[in-house]
Design brief:
The chain has 519 residues and is α/β, with parallel strands linked by helices. Helix content is 41%, strand content 9%. The protein has 21 helices and 13 strands. The strands form 3 sheets. An 8-stranded parallel β-barrel has the order 3-4-6-7-8-9-10-11, surrounded by 6 helices. It has a two-stranded antiparallel ribbon with strand order 1-2. Helix 3 links the parallel strand 3 and strand 4.
């Protein structure tokens, strides 16, 4: 095993690196053949000693954000006051089995300025988590277990906040990692509705071997438009109940929030995600012009390339308020395919902002209740769910809420892809094809939905000789209609079915829908 893998790197504080020869250089082309279950070369620091010496007493922390806390963004944030950064959440199982995944997400991002650094994994198996952590431990200062992701993908994958009830499993995961790793293991959690249960949860993690705990003061149900306000009372109670350092996460939009959170909760540091994305200079207490940070970020990306999707997502966040004013440029930013194309749109946004500044009148206040004019980096407050219709009891679908937030003038990524494949495709609701319901599906007597589906299944089999030919999709509904009419003439309730306007049923879509036939 090479020396740079066998010997641990210790971060001694801001501006001071206790490194071994070769640290900071690109990793070797071939991964070590010897298992990293090797003898530790120095004692592993724990708790407050780990926080003060290895992490340099970090108080300003950039959160782990999928596709958002990549190397270029971490370097930008460090230039503007961040003292500790996390990698994006990495999937432990994929990290273990896929060498390219390791290379793209960690090994090729080794940078001397990017320390201290904590690598975060999602996992639900102790052995897999430890294997992934062993492959990462020589490129970071600690390994974090994600117990806070509330998204549906985490529910399907059974990780993140959806493990918070499985205390026995979590104890085994953290205990094994604490025993085997040469770096500390940390955790990021969400709270339970009950403060007492949240405290017991934190104490269990500490007892298992967690050396630093980040507490997001929201429950796993508080996400997206339902985010609401994070509970600092939960965080304060956890801080009082454990003997390890605690970071707070939630409700951080400016430097004053950071200072108030530390004062009110007693935590050692404060982590920011959304606030950092809209203003990377948050920890400096500054609100610079958006283009200043956008141009700096693009310069860093040219030195440390990352996927264009990450760059585009960051510019959408930085330019969020300006893109509400110059909406036509929002679609241009979504469509560009190169880094220089993204930079060109950003430059155009800068010029538009400067024109707006030149027309600004003395004493004029920012519109829409914003604290600053749209060309200034500032907090973004996620809108809550709007009142729904009486028919659905006030509930609104996630799609409807997303469309309200993004705006109806801009197509979703999925619809943009469909339009690229078919330039003539339209998503205008007023131009949707008419639905011709079967009797019984619209409230009258006749076939039930499952009977209609059965008819369409028979029609599909009857038209199998045309499958793959141009006339298949046009012929299929005609066959279903013929079968329906045949059953009507044999005594089924209701009259014959016939199209209201056209003699030819056309269109490719959900002809088999139980709602009726598309015409």
């Amino acid at each position: 095993m090479s020396q740079c893998v066998a010997v641990r790197l210790r971060w001694s504080g801001p501006g001071e690196v206790g490194a071994v020869p070769g640290r900071g250089a690109p990793p070797p082309a071939a991964e070590p053949s010897v298992s990293p279950f090797s003898v530790r070369t120095m004692p592993k620091l724990q708790g407050f000693e780990f926080w003060s010496r290895t992490l340099g007493g970090a108080r300003h922390v950039v959160a782990p954000m999928v596709d958002q806390s990549e190397l270029a963004w971490r370097l930008l944030s460090r230039r503007h006051g961040a003292q500790l950064c996390y990698t994006p959440m990495l999937h432990a199982q994929v990290f273990v089995r896929d060498a390219n995944y390791r290379k793209d997400n960690l090994y090729c991002e080794v940078c001397p300025e990017d320390r201290p650094l904590i690598v975060q994994f999602c996992a639900n198996d102790p052995e897999v988590f430890v294997q992934a952590a062993l492959l990462a431990q020589d490129y970071c200062d600690a390994v974090d277990l994600n117990l806070g992701c509330p998204q549906m993908i985490a529910k399907r994958g059974h990780y993140g906040a959806f493990l918070q009830e499985e205390w026995d499993l979590l104890q085994r995961m953290i205990l094994l990692a604490h025993e085997k790793l040469s770096v500390p293991v940390t955790c990021k959690i969400r709270v339970f509705p009950e403060i007492d249960k949240t405290v017991k949860y934190a104490q269990m993690l500490e007892k298992a071997g967690c050396q630093l705990l980040t507490v997001h003061g929201r429950t796993k149900e508080q996400k997206g438009p339902l985010s609401g306000t994070a509970s600092w009372e939960h965080i304060k109670a956890v801080r009082k109940a454990v003997t390890i350092p605690v970071f707070a996460n939630g409700n951080i939009q400016c430097l004053q929030d950071v200072e108030r959170c530390i004062r009110d909760t007693g935590v050692q540091g404060v982590m920011s995600a959304e606030g950092n994305l809209h203003n990377p200079a948050l920890f400096e207490g500054r609100s610079p012009a958006v283009w200043e940070l956008a141009e700096e970020y693009l310069d860093i990306v040219r030195q440390h390339p990352c996927p264009l999707s990450c760059v585009r997502a960051h510019l959408f966040k930085l330019w969020h308020h300006t893109l509400q004013v110059h909406r036509q440029l929002r679609e241009e930013l979504a469509k560009v395919k190169t880094l220089e194309g993204v930079a060109a749109v950003s430059q155009e946004l800068k010029l538009r902002c400067q024109e707006d500044m030149s027309r600004q009148k003395e004493g004029e206040k920012p519109p829409g209740g914003l604290p600053f004019f749209h060309w200034i980096c500032q907090p973004y407050f996620r809108p809550g769910p709007r009142e729904g219709s009486k028919e659905n009891g006030g509930a609104r679908s996630k799609r409807a809420l997303e469309e309200e937030e993004v705006g109806t003038d801009v197509l979703s990524k999925n619809k943009q892809k469909k339009q690229l494949r078919n330039p003539h495709k339209t998503f205008d609701p007023s131009l949707k094809r008419e639905l011709f319901p079967l009797p019984g599906t619209g409230g009258s007597d006749g076939y039930r939905g499952e009977q209609h589906q059965g008819l369409c299944a028979v029609a599909m089999r009857s038209c199998s000789h045309l499958r793959g030919r141009a006339g298949f999709w046009g012929h299929l509904p005609e066959k279903a209609l013929l079968l329906a009419n045949t059953q009507r003439t044999m005594g089924a309730p209701g009259g014959l079915l016939r199209p209201p306007s056209s003699n030819r049923l056309v269109g490719r879509g959900r002809q088999n829908s139980h709602r009726g036939l598309r015409v």
